[in-house]
Amino acid sequence: MLVAGLIFLVEESEWINPTVIQSKKDTEDIRVSMDFRSFNATCMHDPFPTPFNDEVLDQVAGKEAYSFTDGFFGYRQIMIAKEENRNTKFTIE
Asked: Is 0.85 surpassed by the pTM of this model?
């Protein structure tokens, strides 16, 4: 990820989030992810949470057109403003 430019090295940061390494279910592969729970606890929460599927389907039933957001490829979809990169730091030990 470093070579691909997806992550970069920093000296120190106010926020350092731990890395979590888990085995993928039914394979020998591993999944590397970051634990942002402590950081998330300091963030403002959205007062308009994502609705349940049945609520959405009730609203679009019988409509002429609707769009679909692709949530299946969840990795690296959200661009983060450069000034907010400081909050996404993580450590690998």
From this structure: no
